[in-house]
Design brief:
By secondary structure, the chain is α/β, with parallel strands linked by helices. The chain has helices spanning 11-14, 26-42, 57-65, 75-84, 100-108, 119-132, 170-177, 200-218, 247-257, 272-275, 308-312, and strands at 21-25, 45-50, 69-72, 91-93, 113-116, 136-141, 183-189, 225-227, 265-270, 279-290, 295-299, 318-320, 328-334, 343-351, 358-361, 384-386. Bound molecules: pyridoxal-5'-phosphate. Pyridoxal-5'-phosphate (PLP) is lined by residues 50, 52-53, 71, 73, 94, 191, 194, 229-232, 269-273, 366.
Length: 388
């Protein structure tokens, strides 16, 4: 597979840019998108890109140009999607707490669907739609109570989580549905979590969705689309060997276990699996500090650039790009921020590392740049694109 052999940035090129900076490989992104589309199209599946993973303009434009729809979780993401060129009928709007102002943005633009997470939310959308003289298309985000077997902070499909409508609320909801004159129920929506690398949770999801789909059809409610959400994980440990997730396997599970009715469209909302591996964070070593048990490699990037390790105990593959040493050593790779959680990894094996070396933190295309902050009054440097 020739996409594995890609030009690395030359040292002369590297040192031109102020560190730390995000670097995106647009060719890898393009190949990942093509691969995802090809396998989805085989089964007539529609993919919405979950914008919250990365809202960089060039990335969004490439994704839009390849025929993806969009999945938004805020009013500003809906506006951004429209600016980039996504059509209103390609926009799904999810989120457990949509403000009235955000709902209005969706109504004014007549988006494809609001993915609704509670009866109270549907009541508010109905009222606001009445004021606007609109009919809002909605999907019910149902909590399938399926364990995604991922980190607890990125598990969303269990009854203990804040997301979705629980099954015991459905009878009540169905009784009210006829009275909401400005609501058209068109879909069922599910999203069980993120960075899911085993296919078993997706199989379990299919089984639960089939039951719920039958429940609705038995009550004479016509559902036009099933939205299975996102969550497919990437290989953070071996990003160079496995840059592109196995979309064939992923969609194959749904093909095998999901039973949509002949008229029903099947939608997905992929974020991380589309953009995760095309990004890296490039940083420079400021100091090496000898500790009691370990050496610290102190970088000029910290949790203000990449918060995933501090927030989710995530680990990214880390590489010294410029050391010419043949020896390797173990380092705790840390940032400069005044927090002990500002650590990218403990006991990381790197080529012998010294002040001024360039360090690459792999697989930071998803939930990286979008989560940067100005804590400690830090500023973010311009992004660099390669393989354009
Ligand atoms: C975050 C999110 C996604 C995307 O999740 P990934 O793990 O990045 O694929 C999809 N749908 C909803 C509702 C989300 O909140």
């Amino acid at each position: 597979m020739d996409f594995l052999i890609r030009t690395k940035m030359k040292k002369e090129e590297l040192i031109k840019h102020k560190t730390p900076f995000y670097c995106y490989d647009l060719e890898l992104l393009s190949q990942t998108l093509d691969e995802a589309q090809a396998h989805a199209k085989k089964h007539d599946y529609h993919i919405h890109y979950a914008m919250k993973a990365n809202t960089n303009d060039r990335i969004l434009k490439l994704i839009q140009s390849k025929g993806f729809s969009s999945d938004c979780v805020s009013g500003n993401e809906v506006k951004k999607a429209l600016e980039i060129g996504f059509k209103p009928n390609q926009i799904a709007f999810a989120g457990v707490g949509k403000s009235d102002e955000e709902i209005m943005i969706g109504l004014e633009n007549e988006i494809f669907t609001f993915n609704c997470e509670s009866v109270e939310e549907i009541e508010v959308i109905n009222e606001l739609a009445e004021q606007k003289g609109k009919i809002a298309r909605i999907a019910l985000r149902l909590n399938p109570n399926v364990d995604a077997k991922t980190h607890k902070y990125i598990t969303t499909g269990l009854e203990e989580n804040k997301f979705g409508i629980n099954s015991w609320e459905l009878d009540n909801l169905i009784e009210k549905i006829g009275s909401w004159k400005h609501i058209k129920l068109t879909g069922l929506h599910f999203h069980i979590g993120s960075q899911i690398t085993s296919m078993t949770p997706f199989k379990n999801l299919c089984i639960r969705v089939n039951e719920l789909n039958t429940w609705f059809s038995e009550r004479g409610i016509r559902i036009e689309h099933l939205n299975l959400g996102g969550g497919l994980g990437i290989d953070y440990q071996n990003p160079t060997e496995n840059p592109i997730p196995d979309f064939e396997l992923f969609f194959g599970v749904f093909k095998q276990f999901l039973e949509p009715r002949p008229h029903q469209e099947v939608h997905f909302e992929l974020g991380r699996s589309l953009v995760g591996n095309c990004g890296s964070l490039i940083s420079k070593v400021l100091f090496i500090k000898k500790g009691i048990k370990t050496n610290f490699a102190i970088l000029d990037a910290g949790m203000t650039e990449l918060i995933r390790p501090a927030l989710y105990q995530a680990s990214h593959s880390i590489e010294n790009l410029t050391s010419e040493s043949r020896e390797s050593e173990f380092y705790d790779v840390v940032g400069p921020i005044c927090e002990s959680s500002d650590c990218f990894g403990k006991k990381i094996e790197l080529k012998e590392t010294k002040r001024g070396d360039y360090i690459k933190i792999h697989s930071t295309g998803a939930y990286g740049e979008v989560m940067t902050s100005g804590y400690n009054l830090r500023e973010q440097n311009p992004v660099v694109y390669i393989n354009e």
